[in-house]
Amino acid sequence: MLKRLDKIRFRGQRRDEFLDLAESPNTSDTECTDEVVMKPRMSIREPSEELSVEGEQQSDAQAGPGSFSAALQDDSRTDLNEVKGHLEIALLEKHFLQEELRKLKEESNVDSLKQELEKERCRRIELEQKVNDALRSRLEDSPSQTPKVPPPPQPAGSGTDKQRETLSNSFLKWLYDRFGVYIEDFRFQPEEKTVETDEPLSGKRLTENMRRLKRGFRPVTNFMRNLSALSSWYSVYTSAIAFIFYMYAAWHGWAIPMFLFLAILRLSLNYLISKGWRIQWSIVPEVSEPMEPSKEDLTVSEKFQLVLDVAQKAQNLFGKMANILEKIKNLFMWVQPELTQKLYVGLWVAFISSCLLPYKLLGFIIAVYAGIKFFIIDFIFKSCPKLRQRFDTPYIIWTNLPTDLQLKERSSTTLSRRVPAAGGRGSLSAAAPLGVSRDEDGGRYYSTKRGAFHEVFSLPESERPLTVCENGWRCCLINRDRRTPTDYIRNGVLYVTENYLCFESSSSRSGSSKRNKVIKLLDIKEIQKYKVLSVLPGSGMGISIATPSTQKPMVFGAMMHRDEAFDAIFTQYNKILGVATAASPET
Question: What is the extent of the structural domain holding 546?
């Protein structure tokens, strides 16, 4: 009986080979009744097994009714357990097969693959049809359809013709292999246009570009400074030696070879410098630039001031370039006819001389004149400014040429100036010639928003703003001696001339001219940098000036370019003070 139970229990796979029931999915027993067809447990047994089973049954029947009933109960229980195990196995297999089928569908999209396969088939069929059509058309066009005639016997010279053809073909092939690459270079192709993307605005990039521009212009500025020093006889021995060598080369017609030799010498020196040699030759000692602090050590206000300085330098650089271009344009467009007329006459003289004189003599005259002009005439003109303003024709033309901005200012002042009716003909004649007025002495027209500079501040006509402050510095004047707020703080523009410090108030009231401030530089007792608000970081944005007429020093605050203004005022103050002290012992 025990043997029969073991056979029935382990007829299928063992229960321990399958997953644990706790790991099986939560499915009901009726979930796959439609798919799994339960087969009867009756199996076809072999005859030997049946005989053994019958023998066992007979022996069991003989054993007694108690043991037979117990065996039947054990048999039914084992059959139920076996059926339950098979059912669980079928459910697990179904679940796993469904998961695999879902994964396969996700990984390989059968429909898309079928569509692509159909497209490829259609494309292949079309290509085959095209190939067949092309072959048919060639066969129809070729004279091969005519009946083939046996080739006539070749003449005796056909072999030599074939050899010539092969030699020519090989020679052409060699030429193409050797020079075909160079011939392909001359093939015309449309030019490809690439559009460069603009970089976004960045203060860091702006600062770095300005530094790069400064470093790039440094060799040019050093060269121009050395030329100016050579012309000004900064070093007498160097200028004398250069003048003698140049005039000797110009006299013998070696001016151009001399310049080429100097260029070769300069390149050779640069090569040695690039290899590590320390070679330094300069007429004027080079000015060592201050070391810029690292950006990590700068405060917020210093970084903001750095960006403002870079923006100011860019503005001034663009302004100078615009002035040069506008002056050249106005020179050729006859904006100032008396100036363009001189250029016109000079070009006619040069043209007639080039037509009549031989080129050797013409080159000799130009080289000698250039040497005398550079070494002698320019030195005299730089030493005597009055002679330069009267006789230096290129300087007079360039300085008197107006820019577009100056022309606009002149037209605006002409329209805004009101001439009183009782002024008479004299006032009209004084107001009319603004193009060549007294304010243009030296070729420059200086004016403020309210008129001519000397008229606004009631100063002599010779008093004009210095070059460093032609447009002035915007600031606010803090007069701590006044009590009322309108007199305590005034917004305006600060100028410095040769002898005065002028503040123009920006108030538009009728009494604004009385609110302007003029300080004589010799009356200044003390000038120093000032920090209006000690709470803010940085060194401040103000200048403190003490005079005898004020109890407390006046402060020019909120000045964006405080350091530049302070240096200009302090330099001019020391200059005037030195002239006054030098003149006092003589008197």
Answer: 448-582
